[in-house]
Amino acid sequence: MSETAARRRRALMRFWRDYRAQRAGLYGAAILAVFVLLALVTPLVTDPSGLDVTKATGPKMAPPSAQFPLGTDESGRSILLMILWGSRVSLLIGFLAALLSMVIGTVTGITAGHFRGWSSAVLMRITDWFLVLPSLVLALVLAAILGGGTSTIILAIGVTSWAATARLIRAQTLAVEARPYVERSRVLGAGHWHVMTRHVLPNVAPLVLANTTLTVAGAIVTESTLAFLGADAGQASWGSMLRGSYDWGAVTSGAWWYVLPPGLCIVAVVLAFTFCGRALEAVLNPRLRGVA
Amino acid sequence: MTLLEARDLHVEFASRGRRARAVDGVDLTVGEGEIVALVGESGCGKTTLARTLLGLERPASGTVLYGGAPLAYSARALKAYRREVQLVPQDPTGSLNPRHTVYEAVAEGPRIHGLRDERERVASALSRAGLRPPERFFPVYPHELSGGQRQRVVIAGALALDPEVLVADEPVASLDASVRGEILALLLRLRAELGLSALVVTHDLGLAWNIADRVAVMYLGRIVESGPVEQVLSAPSHPYTQALLSVLPESPAPIVLSGEPPDPTRIPGGCRFHPRCHVLAAGKAAEAGVDGLCRSQPLEVLPSSAALQAACHYARARQPRL
């Protein structure tokens, strides 16, 4: 199968060449790369003991200074240190929860759209059930039953947020399956797997990517909401920092250094994801090429 | 030698609680190296018949035979059948995945069937379909091609599997007139060079005249007249065929059919064409003494014979050999 491997490699090189032409996508990827890199090197260059309220050395709610570039919180911890360590938790939960949600949603959606009849009906009733359940309450209950921890929060967010994606992907799958080229492919002898992976998946991929963007953002926000309600991962995250700033009245006391950094970080990561998603869409859809 | 055959084929759909008999008893054969045209107006069941012959639709009763053996509907048997009988679809633009290059579109069949020498196969299929030099078209996307070139790519995709029969569903309906001739010439050349048989579904009698050896005229799920193309189209016996021919531009007096358009959920009793039949309406059937038969006596399914035949009481009263 060396010919297949060579074809894949050529396709990958072509993809990268096309992606490079997308300026916004490059910016998005660069922003994401910076955040991921910072999250990765943080444990190598900083000391997590500064996150412990009992070991915090700084003054309370101090504005930015040379010693604390982004000021301190109500316990005298460095905001910069919390942002750096919080990025690890927020990004991990955001990425993995979105990934879990997209995988469940895409598999369910494509399966329900491709196989008609009772299997599709059963899958869609399950989806409806998850859709009408108050997902935040369900996530809280799941987090409470499974016990605290990062993986619990990921599971709780992932399992409760895929239903809307599944419906969307199913609708798109139905639209793609009605195209004549799917029938042509069947006449050429294609089985279910071929149709689903060669025709349906590439056609729903832009939608999946666009949705992942929103889901990552949603997952980061859900994580902070869960933290706000007491089901946190037990570590500092951007979400729990926003919660802390709210609890301690950072806005009314003018402590902008406590509110803006976590908020801007969330915005930057979500924006970077949107840029990447758009660029990928433009590359994967030949009709959009040269337009964006 | 008969390659592809439909034997007493019935295909039904559920339509708002009623049964639509889209194909209502059809016997049809396509011989080796033969081109058969299936003509009829929209909604007469010709596309459904073509899809059933391709195994995309399962008959309610009756059989599709290939090479004398009935078609099996297991996934494995259908996949093997796909190497023998291929489709040329109506809309080449919609039939090509916009994300796949010409190479990928033509290589799809060989890849599905795990055939070796993919590159040579694709190149030879493209050049047989008239896209030369084939290498120039490999990296091209469908939206960069003209309609005629797209149809050639679709035909090349079918040829890459070395089929014996092509089922072409309105192969040139979406192409402009100058390209039509080229695609038809291509089909004729494929027959001459590769011995391909074809069933060409069309509503265009001129096309049937140009390309086919035999023609079968379909009305409301059944073949009402069939025979060698010169005989059927130069001297049509069935009033429906006469009406179809009379509206061609060069025809002196067009016959405009009256009555309701055909509805496959309510097939009339007697001759299925009698509510719209101009021969019956003009009283000529009564002169021949068959008007009672027209209204009450259903006609049998025409056998799949090469000779001229028509399912019409009036035509039979005048020409007993039919």
TrEMBL record, chain A:
Belongs to the binding-protein-dependent transport system permease family. Keywords: Cell membrane, Membrane, Transmembrane, Transmembrane helix, Transport. This is ABC transporter permease. Its main location: membrane. CDD domains: TM_PBP2. It is found in: Cell membrane. GO terms for biological process: transmembrane transport. It comes from the Bacteria. It is a multi-pass membrane protein. Residues 87-277 form the ABC transmembrane type-1 domain. InterPro entries: BP-dependent_transpt_permease (IPR050366), MetI-like (IPR000515), MetI-like_sf (IPR035906), OppC_N (IPR025966). It comes from Planobispora takensis. Pfam families: BPD_transp_1, OppC_N. GO terms for cellular component: plasma membrane. The keyword Transport applies. The chain crosses the membrane at residues 24-45, 91-115, 127-146, 152-169, 200-221, 255-280.
Automatic annotation (TrEMBL), chain B:
It comes from the Bacteria. The keyword DNA repair does not apply. Coiled coil: none annotated. One of its GO terms (biological process) is peptide transport. SMART domains: AAA. Keywords: ATP-binding, Nucleotide-binding, Transport. Gene3D superfamilies: P-loop containing nucleotide triphosphate hydrolases. Residues 4-245 form the ABC transporter domain. Transmembrane segments: none annotated. InterPro entries: AAA+_ATPase, ABC_transp_ATP-bind, ABC_transporter-like_ATP-bd, ABC_transporter-like_CS, Oligopep_ABC_C, P-loop_NTPase. One of its GO terms (molecular function) is ATP hydrolysis activity. Belongs to the ABC transporter superfamily. This is Peptide ABC transporter ATP-binding protein. It comes from Planobispora takensis. The lineage of its organism: Bacteria, Bacillati, Actinomycetota, Actinomycetes, Streptosporangiales.
